[in-house]
Design brief:
Number of helices: 6
Number of strands: 0
Radius of gyration: 19 Å
């Protein structure tokens, strides 16, 4: 299925595997993203949205509770920070929040919540908080 679960049914190994793979992918194309090669930020955002973000968000509805762990959130933020610095062609001294504003990317913890919520709403699973169409008894009609 593509999700790594350890013997204690924790998703930490999956998050570590995915973040390591995305970091390697980012470093592989960062050689072509240098300022001298003139790979524009639009192309880098397309790579992020098409290659890295889908890997980071794969099966997010299964492991959404794991992102509430600070260790897992830091791993995801680290991956997004690396690619955001490449897109903005900024120095490493800039904060993650500032580089997200410069690049126009949604911070990854918020993006994870949005994708999981959208999935739960559209599939009807676990959406008791987001009841869109609720059943009404005809006796309560006007």
């Amino acid at each position: 299925m593509g999700i790594t679960i350890d013997s204690k049914f924790k998703i930490t190994e999956h998050i570590k595997f995915i973040t390591d793979r995305c970091t390697k992918l980012t470093n592989a194309f960062s050689k072509s993203a240098k300022i001298n090669w003139r790979l524009r930020h639009e192309a880098l955002k397309t790579i992020y949205n098409g290659a890295i973000l889908p890997q980071l968000l794969y099966a997010v509805s299964v492991w959404i509770d794991a992102i509430k762990n600070e260790y897992n959130t830091k791993k995801y933020v680290k991956v997004q920070r690396i690619i955001s610095l490449r897109i903005a062609k900024a120095y490493h001294t800039i904060s993650h929040e500032a580089v997200c504003i410069l690049t126009g990317l949604t911070p990854i913890p918020i993006k994870v919540e949005d994708v999981a919520t959208l999935y739960n709403i559209t599939t009807g699973g676990n959406n008791h908080k987001y009841q869109i169409d609720k059943e009404e008894n005809p006796s309560s009609w006007l």
